[in-house]
């Protein structure tokens, strides 16, 4: 299979992975031969990428960290929670003052979240992930306009679970982190869509409102006593930074291993759970932003996280992410930019990750430098030290 942008899809191509709407209903099943009218409909629904079956790529199967059904169940639980919060909030304006006024009566949010249902699906996600050996953070989810927030919650939760496990936190601690991360951005549901969906080109006033989503989320979640306080603080703190440059309270980190419990944590410091989710959230926002024009390739996102380690992000969590995250995920389209003359400009799809060196995968070459289809052949970068590849960005 090959992941391509919707703009590149043509009539007659075969869908590689099934597509669903935000409610979990099947839109198009894998194996369906695409038609122009359905491609237009997918554009309207806000899809930007899909998986297709292409001759020669039959054995390239993107890694599914959790099965399709569990992902749909988890997204549905988060969506139902979001819809309940929005209905109870009854936001009647788009200014900070109007939103604050609507949320002033915190009692309205008491016990509105179906915590046991969310805990159930989250525990299933944990069991699924921790039951697999040597799992990599190979994120391949497909997002569209209506499921974007819910899929972001799920992907950040998956990464947070894997990071916490790599950092040797207990099963109980992993569960608390997962419960907080699955709801970490829930405050965005009361932020006007025009602001929440705009991306990085926000005015000062718009950014001021957007930053409040951390406080909104925390104030809503803390009214639900079946959620542990440390889980609710993940929503509050996931945009704080090690150097105190984050928001909403300018907390600082200590760059300690998150597995190290702090019995007397100094005032004004981040909770170790939030430090883990912060790294996962930052990575996911880089590789899957709402505004596709701002997307970063996975290898570039990793470099950005490395630059922010110690100052913005907990260095131990960033190190853990590097050991778990391929620079070029399976299914990614890449081009050879350095190496033997006969290979320069060739393009192909990543077919297998090299666990010994996540920046040197195996690539199935499909096209020459002039984009002509050629007889496929494997290029194993672990054996071709002179070769360098580059992610081909698809917006």
Tell me the number of helical segments per DSSP (H or I, 4 or more residues long). Answer: 13
- Report how far apart the termini are: 18 Å
Question: How many separate structural domains?
Answer: 3
Mean pLDDT: 92
Structural shape: globular
CATH topology of the largest domain: Hypothetical protein af1432
Rg value: 21 Å
Q: Which structural class do the helices and strands define?
A: alpha+beta
The CATH superfamily of the largest domain is identified as Hypothetical protein af1432
Number of strands: 10
Strand order of the largest sheet: 9-8-7-6-10
Largest sheet: 5 strands, antiparallel
CATH architecture of the largest domain: Orthogonal Bundle
Residue stretches low in confidence (pLDDT < 50, at least 5 long) are: none
Order of helices and strands: EEEEHEHHHHHHHHHHHHEEEEE
Strand content: 5-15%
Residues in helices, as a percent range: 25-40%
CATH class of the largest domain: Mainly Alpha
What does it look like?
The chain has 395 residues and is α+β, with helices and mostly antiparallel strands. The protein folds into 3 domains: 2-53, Molybdopterin biosynthesis moea protein, domain 2; 68-324, Orthogonal Bundle (Hypothetical protein af1432), CATH 1.10.3210.10; 333-391. The protein is 38% helix and 12% strand. The protein is built from 13 helices and 10 strands. It has helices spanning 36-44, 68-89, 96-103, 115-130, 148-166, 171-181, 193-196, 204-211, 213-221, 229-237, 272-287, 298-308, 315-324, and strands at residues 2-5, 14-15, 19-20, 26-28, 49-53, 333-338, 347-352, 362-367, 373-380, 388-391. The strands form 3 sheets. It has a 5-stranded antiparallel beta sheet with strand order 9-8-7-6-10, with no helix packed on it. The protein has a 3-stranded antiparallel beta sheet with strand order 1-5-2, with no helix packed on it. A hairpin with an 8-residue loop joins strand 6 and strand 7 (347-352). Helix 2 crosses helix 5, helix 5 (148-166) packs across helix 13 (315-324) and helix 6 packs across helix 10. The chain is globular and about 65 Å long. The model has no long low-confidence stretch (mean pLDDT 92).
